[in-house]
């Protein structure tokens, strides 16, 4: 199962926290990092904008990405939210296995991962 990091932005901390908690509770993400205080400069509908935003980075599996995108779109205040999946090519195998075990329905893989940690 391929791993994806999902880069997203939100209007404020309340929105980011709600999205993050929902994604983890629904097992669409193993973890979501929330980084406050970002400034974004962009053009929207012909006008230059400069706004404060919150960055979120979710860790998930590739097969769960479509459901994650739909869930975020349904909770998000933006008309066109930034939600992009980035391939994870390598890393700490134990951490990548943890993501695989945490995302999706509770499974044998989840139980096996936790058993290995004991």
UniProtKB/TrEMBL annotation:
Pfam families: CutA1
Any one GO molecular function term: copper ion binding
Ranges in coiled-coil conformation: none
GO biological process terms held by the UniProt record: response to metal ion
Organism domain of life: Bacteria
Family assignment from sequence similarity: Belongs to the CutA family.
The protein's name: Uncharacterized protein involved in tolerance to divalent cations
